[in-house]
Amino acid sequence: MNYRPTEDIDADPASGSPLALEIRGISKSFGRFPALNNVSLHARDKEFLALLGPSGSGKTTLLRVLAGLERPDAGEVRFAGEDFLSLPVRRRRVGMVFQHYALFRHMTVAQNIAFGLTVRPRRERPSKSETADRVADLLSLVQLDGLGGRFPAQLSGGQRQRVALARALAIEPSLLLLDEPFGALDAQVRRELRRWLREVHDRAGVTTVFVTHDQEEALDLADRVAILKDGELRQLGAPNEVYAAPADAFVYDFLGAACRLPGVVEGRRLTVADWETQAPADAPQGRVEVFFRPDEVMFAPLDGAGLAGEVKAVAVRGPDVRIECLIEGRLFELESRGAVVPNGVAPGLALRVKPLKPKIYAAKA
Amino acid sequence: MSDQAILPRGLGAPLGAGGAGVGGRPRRAPWVAHSILPGFGLSLGITLVYLGAIVVLPLTALALRPWELGLDGVWRALTAPRVAAAFRLSFGLSALAALLNAPLGLLIGWTLTRYSFPGRRIMDALVDLPFALPTAVAGIALTAIYAPTAPLGHFAARFGIKTAFSPLGIFIALVFIGLPFVVRSVQPVLQELDREVEEAATTLGANAFQRAVRVILPTLAPALISGVSLAFARAVGEYGSVIFIAGNMPMRTEIAPLIIVMKLEQYDYAGAAAVGLAMVVIAFGSLLLINGLQLFLARRGRV
Amino acid sequence: MTAVGRPFSQTRLPGFAPLLVIASATVMTVLVLLPLFVVFSDAFSKGIGHYLAAITEPDAVSAMKLTLLVAAIAVPLNAVFGIAAAWCIARFEFRGKGVLLTLIDLPFSMSPVVSGLVWVLLFGAQGWFGTWLIDHDVKIIFATTGLVLATILVTFPFVARELIPLMQDQGSDEEAAALTLGAGGFTTFWRITLPNIRWALLYGVLLCNARAMGEFGAVSVVSGHIRGLTTTLPLHVEVLYNDYDFVGAFAAASLLASLGLVTLVLKTGLEWRHSGELSANRRH
Fold first, then answer.
1. In chain B, fewer beta carbons within 10 Å around the N or the C end?
2. Residue C129 in contact with partner chain B when CB distance is under 8 A
3. Is the distance from CB of A102 to CB of A75 less than 8 angstroms?
4. Which residues share a beta bridge with A360?
5. Confidence class for position C18, pLDDT limits 50, 70, 90
6. Alpha-carbon span B225 to B290, nearest angstrom
7. Distance of alpha carbon B277 from its chain centroid, rounded?
8. Under a CB-based contact definition with an 8 Å cutoff, are residues C230 and C66 in contact?
């Protein structure tokens, strides 16, 4: 299954805000390895767009195409109506934050941030004092006041990341590109910087595209998420949309913990093991795969509806209860929110597990 | 450029997935990959012109010149007794010196990385002295030390050993210039040698000797071989530090590079080129051979 | 010998470490330090007056000047080549790179005498261009040009070999960042690349210069040993030595040895202070 946006991408009735970035039919291969295959997507003005995918999905390549660091084999990129591909990197005015920051190691933090201003042609170059003011503003925006004289090697990972962002923002970019901005940071710092990055984005009023392999990050941060795999776009939509209605099995699996069982659809009838239920009207026919989230289940006694299972172990883990349950000979790790063990659930007991929102995808041939 | 960019993929490339024969590749990669960085043409241009003028043109002359003697003549030039003796001396002594440098270099490399003692850093820096000292300076200094009239040479002479103006003198000079190659090759490997591996061997009951021979030496082998081969290559071509101490007696202490100088003085360009070419070919060939051996050992070490 | 930093090597054989240290020190002293000592002791063996006279004698002075001149031409040319070669090899992917690298390495495995010989084969009286040069009254062999060419051939890998691995290690992210920030190609090179490689460049130039000033074999072949005209300092040493003017020879040699020592000190200083900005896998 290959999801393609079917909506008319020239106008967006929902928000009414103009399109900023249009990517059409981008393909790029490295030697024989196709990194991107006919990818089309778009971003609205001032939108925060996440490119999400596992490694090798082409997301970074796509970002580098936008920055001008990579030239696509085919396709078109327009930004604010302008043909972006015909512009050299330095004229695109994109603020790029590199995965490993690419800070200039021989320059101080302030010199790093000022670099984009000092390399402008003499006529457009701000005066020394203007540059200094701008650097000071940016330093306080990224909460690094007073650290302008340090060298990159003297900073922590999180601080370097913020310098890289300040440096990218200094040129007042119309498009901000972030390549795995939190990739090299530990979980604690990641979570702190995430909210803050969103605030910076909102305040700076730029269109932002960022690459991540962390679905939680993408869903938490972005206005819309583009999910890529093997160089192809699988789905594009708002976080709640894609989470609620994954376009295919891969997207479902990638966006969160998933339980999977084989089943059969005949007409409007879905059969999974000994459980029969009604299938949605648009469900594929024949052999299917049924997915459900481990926390979207209801436990019922044996005479109720659902998949027959046997509880193997129960453990309270902080706010959740983990229930290991044997269904159809496979062990599933189910979750129940709230630190209370649901009624009728105890090791050794047989019961029924009823998926609340099962998703049905055609089985792979 | 965009008209080129929006061409559909594979247009103009042969259809069908890579069959055999010419044009089997579905997409012929350009000889230089696209990059956003500027200056490729300029820098490659400078590099090619410079390499062409400084290396390729002169070496072409070296490769072509001998053959005006004919295959026969080249063979005769190389196998003339005096020339053959010089080759034997140069390659034989170079190999011996490189081999002695292996234990010496290991000893010094080991001491420098494993122990801290007063003057360690100075000793470390001095290892490079044979690199830094111009060869002619090393040559006359070594001669002054080992000449029969000098203290060390005199001392050796009391035991009937002739040092300077004998193959032994050449050998000493070759050990001198080869030492840094071995030390500098093994030093980084010794430094990065995983202490835990050694400690594991110790906990498994290996004694110091067993650890050295069964754990450290195999890890070190590729670097050691590379250092020894570099020392060898340098020694074969060495001129300045050898020429003074050698005494340059025909058939006994004439080194191969000296034969070249001699032939040039007799305006025997082709003969000189023949000897020079042979030296380059043999040196390069043995380096290739040693590289192969090193690769083999490195691959075995990885398993 | 108190010594011995890391404890476990010594735990079993306490007497072993000092033994190895003493053995190493002995090898270093006899093999490496003694020659250095002899240079200076022989140079001053007849007093400072003799020494000063020997190094201020006209032939010695002209040899020094010639040595400086040759290095002043060869080293900058090799530095420019080294930067250009490193830029195209470390920053671009193209076919034939391996061949380029081999060609750059080649002089390291060539005898210096061969490095001199090849120029005689080209420009000597019976060389490829010999007749043409004689007809046009151009002198290369037995002249400064020949010395420069031979020196360039012997010393040209130093800068390139130092820069290529370093620039490959550093990658081109910083340059790409500069371009996205609006910098042009030249600005990027001048303000990002060059500062990042400056210590390695200095290191390479240092080694290149030391070898250029100290080269003997290659220049000896092309020089013709014309006193006061084509004798560089190392050749001057040889000439005096063969004339049995040992004090003169060692006096001149002491200048070269000092050059070597200064190089060693600067090189070691660079290694201590800027080890992170030099290339790790170094070959001499």
1. C
2. no
3. no
4. A290
5. confident
6. 7
7. 16
8. yes
- What size, in residues, is chain A? 365
Give the model's confidence band at B13: pLDDT under 50 very low, under 70 low, under 90 confident, else very high.
Answer: very low
Residues of A in contact with C172 (CB under 8 A): none
Q: By CA distance, what is C258's nearest residue in B?
A: B133
Residue to mutate among A89, A160, A163, A169, with most C CBs inside 10 A, is A89
* Shortest CA gap C90–chain A (Å): 17
Range with the lowest mean pLDDT among A109-123, A139-153, B6-20? B6-20
Residue B1 domain-assigned?
no
**Which residue among B54, B188, B273 sits closest to C117, beta carbon to beta carbon?**
B273
Comparing CB atoms, the residue among B112, B126, B134 nearest residue C32 is B126
Output the domain CATH number for residue B252.
Answer: 1.10.3720.10
**Cα separation, A267 vs A279, whole angstroms:** 8
Query: Position B168: which residue type?
Result: L
B139 contacts B240 by C-beta, under 8 angstroms: yes
* Residue in the structure block whose two tokens are 């003499």: A122
Asked if A122 has any chain C CB less than 8 Å from its own CB, the reply is no
Task: Report the residue from A74, A85, A89 with minimal CB separation from B8.
Answer: A74
Closest CA to A58 of A191, A222, A250, A213: A213
Cβ contacts of C263 on chain B, cutoff 8 Å: 132
Strands A82-83, A286-292: pairing is unpaired
Cα–Cα distance for residue pair A112/A130, rounded to 1 Å: 16
Domains of chain A listed by start with CATH number: 19-245 (3.40.50.300), 262-362 (2.40.50.140)
Which structural domain range is residue B168 located in? 70-302
Per the CB < 8 A criterion, the answer to whether C186 and C178 are in contact is no
Give the amino acid at C59: D
Closest CA to A70 of A118, A35, A106: A35
CB C33, CB B126: distance < 8 Å? yes
pLDDT at B137 over 90: yes
Please state the length of chain C: 284
**Taking CB atoms and an 8 Å cutoff, what residues of chain C touch B129?**
32-33, 36, 260, 264
**What are the chain B neighbours of A29 within 8 Å (beta carbons)?**
9, 27
Inter-axis angle of helices A109-118 and A128-141, nearest 10: 130
Coil/strand/helix, residue A334: strand
What is the ipTM metric for this complex?
A: 0.88
3-state secondary structure of C283: coil
Total tally of structural domains belonging to chain B: 1
* Euclidean distance between CA atoms B89 and C81, whole angstroms: 37
The dihedral sign for the CA sequence A113, A115, A121, A122: positive
Look at B82-96, B194-208, C145-159, C264-278 and tell me which has the smallest mean pLDDT.
B194-208
Instruction: Flag if A68 and C180 touch (Cβ within 8 Å).
Output: yes
Both tokens of C44, joined, read 């001053």
pLDDT band at C241 (very low <50, low <70, confident <90, very high): very high
Question: In angstroms, rounded to a whole number, what is the distance separating the alpha carbons of residues A235 and A244?
Answer: 12
User: Would residue B108 count as lying in a domain?
Assistant: yes
Domain-located, residue B17: no
Strand order, beta sheet including A94-97: A94-97, A175-179, A207-212, A48-52, A224-229, A232-237
Inter-residue contact C73 to C79 (CB < 8 Å): no
Predicted confidence (pLDDT) per residue in C180-216, tens digit: 999 988 999 999 999 999 999 999 999 999 999 999 9
Contacts of B50 in chain C (CB under 8 A): 77, 81, 84-85, 156
Nearest alpha carbon to residue A80 among A69, A92, A68:
A92
Position B263 in a domain = yes
d(CA A60, CA A66): 10
